[in-house]
Amino acid sequence: QVDVAAMVQLFGYVDVTDTGFIVAVLSIAFNPLFWNVVARWEHKTRALSQVFGSPHAACYCLGAVILVLNCVRSHCFTEAMKSQPKLEGWDYHWTYYSGLAISAVGTLFVISSFLALGFTGTFLGDYFGILMEEKVTSFPFSVLDNPMYWGSTAIYLGWSLMHASPAGLLLTAVVAISYTIAVLYEGPFTEEIYRRKQKGVKSK
């Protein structure tokens, strides 16, 4: 069971009206919304592929924008933590090294996901018509679904623990929620893209 009193005490350290905290929340929520809207628009219109001359060039451009937005998100996340108090009982070596270990595992999932999928597979190439031959089932996809998202969430969780930051923990929860919503929209849509591909192959 969740210790409600402990949760109230923990988040009593967080000023959710702080400008930096609000900016961090908005940046976290904006990123998956942005890439889902743009990628679906591209899938429907092929407008970016036409502008950039090819689906690959358009996908690489979107990927670059997503990377920049992720850097902005991380910066806002860090600044929001710095502007709010630490939890004194957590400001010890064991918390720091626990957070470091969690971040390391998250980084492993993110990097291995990227290596397994490649650039276009990572950055929504499916929506540009750049489809993979078969579903990736190697590590880390053999361990869990959407390892890129949950690896990224783990990095933020570890970063928050390293800073003994209640604000960071709350923002990490926002990251997890935003990714959960993204998965609910992306999963069925991507499956439909590949279902149509298989139907097209069988009809030939």
UniProtKB/TrEMBL annotation:
Pfam families: PEMT. GO terms for biological process: methylation; phosphatidylcholine biosynthetic process. The gene is Pemt. Keywords: Endoplasmic reticulum, Lipid biosynthesis, Lipid metabolism, Membrane, Methyltransferase, Mitochondrion, Phospholipid biosynthesis, Phospholipid metabolism, S-adenosyl-L-methionine, Transferase, Transmembrane, Transmembrane helix. The chain crosses the membrane at residues 20-39, 95-124, 165-185. It catalyses: 1,2-di-(9Z,12Z-octadecadienoyl)-sn-glycero-3-phospho-N-methylethanolamine + S-adenosyl-L-methionine = 1,2-di-(9Z,12Z-octadecadienoyl)-sn-glycero-3-phospho-N,N-dimethylethanolamine + S-adenosyl-L-homocysteine + H(+); 1,2-di-(9Z-octadecenoyl)-sn-glycero-3-phosphoethanolamine + S-adenosyl-L-methionine = 1,2-di-(9Z-octadecenoyl)-sn-glycero-3-phospho-N-methylethanolamine + S-adenosyl-L-homocysteine + H(+); 1,2-di-(9Z-octadecenoyl)-sn-glycero-3-phospho-N,N-dimethylethanolamine + S-adenosyl-L-methionine = 1,2-di-(9Z-octadecenoyl)-sn-glycero-3-phosphocholine + S-adenosyl-L-homocysteine + H(+); 1-hexadecanoyl-2-(4Z,7Z,10Z,13Z,16Z,19Z-docosahexaenoyl)-sn-glycero-3-phosphoethanolamine + S-adenosyl-L-methionine = 1-hexadecanoyl-2-(4Z,7Z,10Z,13Z,16Z,19Z-docosahexaenoyl)-sn-glycero-3-phospho-N-methylethanolamine + S-adenosyl-L-homocysteine + H(+). PANTHER family: PHOSPHATIDYLETHANOLAMINE N-METHYLTRANSFERASE. GO terms for molecular function: phosphatidyl-N-methylethanolamine N-methyltransferase activity; phosphatidylethanolamine N-methyltransferase activity. It is found in: Endoplasmic reticulum membrane. One of its GO terms (cellular component) is endoplasmic reticulum membrane. Its EC number is 2.1.1.17, 2.1.1.71. The lineage of its organism: Eukaryota, Metazoa, Chordata, Craniata, Vertebrata. It is a multi-pass membrane protein. PROSITE patterns: SAM_PEMT_PEM2. Its main location: endoplasmic reticulum. InterPro entries: PEMT/MFAP, Phopholipid_MeTrfase. This is Phosphatidylethanolamine N-methyltransferase. Pathway: Lipid metabolism; Phospholipid metabolism; phosphatidylcholine biosynthesis.
